[in-house]
Amino acid sequence: MLTMALLVAAPLSILIFATFLGVRADVMSAMHNPFFDMKFAVTLSLAIPAIIVSLHLSRPEALMRGWGWLLLLPVGLLAVAIGGEAMMAPAMPMTMRMMGKNSRVCLLAIPAMSLPLLAGALFGLRHGAPSHPALAGALAGLVSAGLAATLYASHCTDDSPLFVASWYTLATALVAAIGALVGSRVLRY
């Protein structure tokens, strides 16, 4: 049900992306930048493990123990990417790389594209019986934010891992908080 609900919700998120953002103009040259590719690796390494953990926690007897490490994959990838960027000659100061040019767009776009996916994820998880509804809701938020951030990454011209660590993470945390709040109510059984 979770997969089907996400597939039903995805076209609305894609429509929001296509209507208001679109793919960045220099996408062909950006593909030669390893930090551009890193954004997709980070966002997908959040979304996919969050789906796996969400499915696991949708059973009433399920515990988070032994599964939480999967959610650390994007943290590890970001740490490696930030370390790699630190070893390169900086094209701009660290604060400029962290702030970027699109922080406001990022903070609005990822949550906006996440909302249809979050509704779908919560609907899908409702067919399970999670014993920790707020945690399951937060994971639904991580799923939806990871998928929405993957879309957004193709628009965002800020490729610095510092930008991703700051603004993508903040937007994701917002969606996870919304998911926890709504999930605590709608995922109770």
UniProtKB/TrEMBL annotation:
Coiled coil (residue ranges): none
Spans traversing the lipid bilayer: 35-55, 67-87, 107-125, 134-153, 165-187
Pfam families: NrsF
Keywords linked to the UniProt accession: Membrane, Transmembrane, Transmembrane helix
InterPro entries, A to Z: NrsF
Protein's UniProt name: DUF1109 domain-containing protein
Source species of the chain: Bradyrhizobium cosmicum
Lineage of the species this protein comes from: Bacteria, Pseudomonadati, Pseudomonadota, Alphaproteobacteria, Hyphomicrobiales
